[in-house]
Amino acid sequence: MELQQYPDFRLSLLYVEDEPEIRELLRSVLVRKFPNVDIRTAENGMAGLERFREQRPDIILTDIRMPVMDGIQMTRRILEEDPAVSVIIISACSETDYLLEAIKMGISRYVLKPINHKLLFEAIDDCAARIIHERQVKAQNELIRRLNEELEQRVADRTAELEASNRELQAFCYSVAHDLSTPLRGINGYSNILLEEYSDRLDDEGKSYIERMGAAAERMGQLINDLLELSRVTRRELHREKIDLSYLAHRIVLDLRQHDSDRQAEVTIAENVMDEGDPILIRLALENLLGNAWKYTARVSSPRIEFGTCIANGETVYFVSDNGIGFDMAYVHKLFIPFQRLHGMGEYGGTGVGLAAVQRIISRHGGRIWAEGEPGKGATFYFTLRRPATGSLVEGYPGA
């Protein structure tokens, strides 16, 4: 590469030579050859060292034998202060020992006397090429660093905006849901009064309308309650402490059996499963997962439900599985969306908010939740309670 190909790059060169005529002659040659190089001179090694400290040139071109301080001594001092500077030594054949010493010190190039201008120009071009490359790399790295900083700031700003918008939306949903509860209770209450106190004045069709109105109000009330619960899950401050997940699972299953005493189901719960998390939110998550398993095995002849744990990629993974009605994996992406249901309300109760609440609880703990299922063969929900150290998602995990 020739330096003339990069006219926009400005370089500086310090030429150290004790003979005034030789110094000025070679300087004039270099000025003509390299117009974009600022060429300074010094008359001996000591003066050259002082100029180097003052001006910090990119390239040093020096003779060896000089009074006060020779070129080898100067080069050693300069390279001790700045090992990256390019040094070109001009040497006579009789100065072999000096030249070998200079090479050991780490000079960039050397040129033998009498000076061949072509070889000298090539040496300067080679040093310039390295300097230009280093500058380009440094500039590119600086650009990348600046772009990364800008990107990080933009992401941080956008994240803050989204979080603020999300908080506003959650507050709005909470307010709307709360405000709707009172009139809905009134509708439900008045429909019950009509049926109880005015049923003799209504024909069968009128009674049916009122019953349907009451059922719709009750259904809407349940939706609002679930929406409020979903909002509370998101807004509630997280309090981590040690939790006995096995104990929680046993208590939840006991409650399910008490509320549905006619049900017979084989439930297996792994013992001594401990972790850290918010006990109220984790209980709510397990209530939804075990409650779904209980609900969707209601029509199975020999229902089986299991809560357990396994290790995948060095991480603890929990699961709730059942042999119930399962689901089609083509719709797995809908499982954790609020009010999305894969089964009709006529078949199984619920509003479709439970799994959305579970997903938010797990996410707030830094974990992930995913599922696998097959129609008629059951479903398994897997979850973790902390962010993986490897930064991986679910590849290599059960059910992934």
UniProtKB/TrEMBL annotation:
Residue ranges annotated for the Histidine kinase domain, each copy included: 175-389
Keywords: Coiled coil, Kinase, Phosphoprotein, Transferase
GO annotation, biological process: osmosensory signaling via phosphorelay pathway
Coiled-coil regions, chain positions: 130-168
Domain Response regulatory, residue spans: 12-128
Keyword set includes Phosphoprotein: yes
Name this protein carries in UniProt: histidine kinase
Naturally occurring in which organism (per UniProt): Geobacter hydrogenophilus
Lineage, top ranks: Bacteria, Pseudomonadati, Thermodesulfobacteriota, Desulfuromonadia, Geobacterales
